[in-house]
Amino acid sequence: MNFIVVTIFPEMLNPFWEHGIVRRAIQQNKICVSALNLRDFTEDRHRTTDDRPYGGGCGMVLKPEPLAGAIRAAKKLAPAAKTVLLSPQGRVFDQGMAREFSFFEGLVLVCGRYEGMDERICNDFIDFEISIGDYILTGGELAAMVIMDAVTRLIPGTLGGVDSAQMDSFSSGLLEHAHYTRPRNFEGAEVPEVLLSGNHKEIEKWRFETSLIRSFLKRPDLFKKKPLSRQEIDTLKKWCRDIEEIIHAQSLRGPDALSGGQ
Ligand code: 4GS
After folding, report:
1. Residues facing 131 on adjacent strands
2. Which atom of ligand 1 is closest in space to residue 132's alpha carbon?
3. Each residue of 35-61: b (16+ CB within 10 Å) or e?
4. pLDDT value at residue 164
5. What is the pTM of this model?
6. What is the pLDDT of residue 223?
7. Annotated active-site positions, please?
8. Domain residue ranges in the chain
9. pLDDT tens-digit readout, 10-51
10. Are 103 and 69 in contact (CB under 8 A)?
11. Residue 96 CB less than 6 A away from ligand 1
12. Under CATH, domain 2-152 is a member of which superfamily?
């Protein structure tokens, strides 16, 4: 995967590229990263990248010529790459898109600044317009890093464990189960007994069930979208029956019980 970032602040990306899994992926040639400085594609004496908006109003707009020059240079370096504009007007990035992008040969990530960029660039030079969420940043660089980070870890061989990425939250459509490590007792809070049992079948079952219930409780929006497996449906039905049993037992206490107990 070849990542090329088009930005007026190329130095912002160095700390990101110098740490952790991303750094290792670069060393192992799983990804190749570079930044193109928009200023290097200006033609005037002052190396101007922005200008005032036609029609008036506040703020500045990124000029089209340096952007066009930088994107063309990037495409020359990586002809098969797709161009991505980071912008709050784009489709909101998710794990499915990260997966899709991880199959591309390259990504040219174009970072906006100021009020945005000349609309003619958005129309003619961009394959995907992507937002990392419904909020406004001061620049697209952090958004570009978010995309590169999420994509890199999906490239085979970049993560430690063989199937770490398959086990993640969202890959299965559910949130991950809870994790614990030593000590067994942390400030009075114990690790769930089953995890200490050594019974791998029971541990798998506990992880599956906690992942299912926490997805339902914490992210009902994701949960409703997810196509459920046979096992998931069976578990939910079992819980339904258990809950109905509890309610039924309460109703036998008399009419007060079900009308709020006043
Ligand atoms: C986002 C976002 C963003 C918009 C860049 C205003 C500077 C800023 N980019 N996802 N101009 N949200 N960009 O807020 O990607």
Report:
1. 92
2. 10
3. bbbbbebbeeeeeebbeeeeeeeeeeb
4. 67
5. 0.93
6. 94
7. 88, 115, 153, 168
8. 2-152
9. 999 999 999 999 999 999 999 999 999 999 999 999 999 999
10. no
11. no
12. SPOUT methyltransferase, trefoil knot domain (3.40.1280.10)
